[in-house]
Amino acid sequence: MQYAICKLSIVPVRNLADDASEMTTQLLYGDHFKILEQRKKWSRIRIAYDKSEGWICNKQAFIIPETAYKNIENLKNTKFTTDLVGHINGENGVLLPVVLGSTIIDKTLLPHKFDGNFNDKINSKSDLINTALLYLNAPYLWGGKTPFGIDCSGLTQMVYKVNGYFLKRNAAEQASQGEALSFIEESEAGDLAFFDNADGVIDHVGLIMKNNYIIHAHGQVRIDRLDHTGIFNTEEKNYTHKLRVIKKII
């Protein structure tokens, strides 16, 4: 087995070893991962952070020793960028843009200099919504995790990640975490609301805000009303998502 790290800004992780295949998630700068299988052009990987698996182009994997991988795993205070876009001063002084939630790695592994703000501690729950608002109006992108394109569970995962908390990758997985609440009135800003489709499958998630509002990715990252029925879009004047459960993660 080989070990690698992402030293590019954003890398698509696909469902199949094909450029035209569905993007299921993304690697951001500083993400480390295992290479489970390798072909001529493609590698099947498992991302260390959330155990998501998929295929990336071999040219986009920077191989590292197993010892370096384990050193990253053993870090107590991981640094995540907190600017919408920051910059890495890379090889030959070339600037590399890095997006919100990227990981700043020790210079001995990637000899790059980061220029920007980061968080390396567990923040207050009240900070979650402030981070979520940084993504406001970001376009919806299936599998996306950045301000330039993000899906609903990518939004919740990244908001929690930047503030020092762990969430799994997709909405159904995230719904398995935390403590279920019986009523919206019991929730606090930063709790998660989950929604299901006609088949009863949880396929959407958003962050609860104060005064019965929710921020979520639907067409774009937006703020809508939330009640016991679900999400009410005041522009369309109808319910877009049916509420299934509210979870207190922290």
Task: Tell me the layout of helices and strands.
Blueprint: E1 2-5, E2 10-14, E3 23-28, E4 32-38, E5 42-47, E6 53-57, E7 62-64, H1 66-73, E8 79-81, E9 85-89, E10 95-99, E11 103-104, E12 113-115, E13 118-119, H2 127-134, E14 145-146, E15 149-150, H3 152-162, H4 171-174, E16 179-181, E17 192-196, E18 202-208, E19 213-218, E20 220-226, E21 230-233, E22 238-248
Antiparallel strand pairs: 1-4, 1-7, 2-3, 4-5, 5-6, 8-11, 8-13, 9-10, 9-12, 14-15, 16-22, 17-18, 17-22, 18-19, 19-20, 20-21, 21-22
Helix pairs in contact: 2-3
Task: Walk me through this protein's architecture.
The protein has 250 residues and is mainly β. It folds into 2 domains: 2-119, SH3 type barrels (Roll), CATH 2.30.30.40; 127-248, endopeptidase fold (from Nostoc punctiforme) (Alpha-Beta Complex), CATH 3.90.1720.10. The chain has helices at 66-73, 127-134, 152-162, 171-174; strands at 2-5, 10-14, 23-28, 32-38, 42-47, 53-57, 62-64, 79-81, 85-89, 95-99, 103-104, 113-115, 118-119, 145-146, 149-150, 179-181, 192-196, 202-208, 213-218, 220-226, 230-233, 238-248. Strand 19 and strand 20 (220-226) form a beta hairpin. Helix 2 crosses helix 3 (152-162). The radius of gyration is 18 Å and the shape is globular. The two termini are 35 Å apart.
